[in-house]
Amino acid sequence: MTVETKKIKDLRAKTGAGIMDCKKALEDTNGDISEAEELLRQKGVSSAAKKVGRITDQGVVESYIHNGGKIGALVEVNCETDFVARTSDFTSLAHDLAMQVAAMSPQFINKEELIDKNNQYDEQSCLLEQPFIKDPSKRIQDVINETVGKLGENIEVKRFTRFSLGE
Q: Are 144 and 93 in contact (CB under 8 A)?
């Protein structure tokens, strides 16, 4: 099947995936953009699972101060190389994570950390398990996995803190 260049461009703009990946996904789904987008998302998730063990010693510390200056957050997000740490996709993810921390006030990064502390599981207190504030149909871990699929490197939230006046 021959895929139109416009469809490849549209899919690439939506997903950020490589041109050849977009072309292959469209060929595999007979030109259906929504199915191809889902296929690329699944590929990104499986790609993220393969990269989990890689060392992440580069990255950024991102801050977010909410309007009025009464709530703020710092988050350290790591990746494998400084090249990826400087990309707009990575810095955008770090900023979104800082906003998430400021808005949702998680206590732990993941459920393993939570269980180690008090043997109870609460989805809202784990950053990676929370619904994403910009798209509640996705969890934070899903958003990170999508970025891993786009950038091709392991990404990890190392630590975060939230500040609020009066708390």
A: yes
One-character DSSP codes across 50-109: HHTTS---EEEEEEEE-TTSSEEEEEEEEES-HHHHTSHHHHHHHHHHHHHHHHH--SBS
Give, in order, the Cα–Cα distances in Å from 123 to each of 33, 109, 115, 150: 33, 11, 11, 26
Q: What is the pLDDT of residues 67-95, one digit of tens each?
A: 889 999 999 999 999 999 999 999 999 99
- Residue 47: the pLDDT is 58
* Phi and psi, residue 146, nearest 5°: -65, -40
Q: Is 163 helix (H, G, I), strand (E, B) or coil?
A: strand
Q: What is the token pair recorded at 106? A: 């998680």
pTM: 0.73
Buried b (16+ CB within 10 A) or exposed e, 122-138: eeebbbbbbbbeeeeee
